[in-house]
Amino acid sequence: PLATERCQMFQSPLYYLLAAGVYQTFLPLFSADTVIRIVKLLSIICGMIQVEICYRTLRIAYPGKVSLQVIGILLGGLLPMNLYMSQSLGNEPLVGALISLLILVVYQVFSGVRRESRETFILMGFILGLALLTKVTAILIVPPLLLFLSAEIIRRREAPGEGIRSVARFGIIVFCVALTVSGWYYLQNWIEMDRFF
């Protein structure tokens, strides 16, 4: 549906497409109330994924320091907003999980766990595209992503010109992939309503 058709139709579609698929799959088997509870499992799973991503990030940040990892996982896993949002229907837990995953991949590049390669940039663009297809506020991760990863890429290069070329390549790959994944939705909005969101 278009954003102007009903209340809350302006939301990006990915979470709602997934929820509708789960709803349609289980509706012939269970009552509507039970199916709603099953759909809520999407949010709960996304909350659990965020705890797992927190764990993986802390293993990189504090290798061999189990006590710091445990404290970090307790803090990350018990964030009130994560606990609250993971129990309700909505796109916030999914976009949170996707942005957390994107931050993990960026951190892996920083720490040297993951190579700075075309495949990594494609993965980042794909995750960013899914996040943008889940909620438009995912765009807020773009400026810090550009700033920190660009600084790291330039720092690793010996020649300044080589660093700038690598940053340009990174930006082009990430944003082309993100636009390929989510651009159709924003283009549809532009065509139908003369604005992207």
The profile of the biggest β sheet is: none
The percent range for helix content is over 70%
Oligomeric assembly: single chain
How many E-type strands? 0
Shape field: flat
Averaged pLDDT: 88
The fraction of residues in strands falls at under 5%
**Low-pLDDT segments, ≥5 res:** none
Distance between termini? 13 Å
Q: Pairing-aware structural class of the strands and helices? A: mainly alpha
Rg from C-alpha positions? 19 Å
Give the H and E element order. HHHHHHHH
- Total helical segments: 8
Task: Please characterize this protein's 3D structure.
The chain is mostly helical and 197 residues long. It has 8 helices and no strands. The chain is flat and about 60 Å long.
How is this structure best summarized?
The protein is mainly α.
Topology, element by element:
Elements: H1 14-26, H2 32-61, H3 66-77, H4 80-85, H5 92-111, H6 118-134, H7 142-156, H8 160-193
Helix pairs in contact: 1-2, 2-3, 2-5, 5-6, 6-8, 7-8
Keywords:
0% strand, mainly alpha, 8 helices, single chain, 197 residues
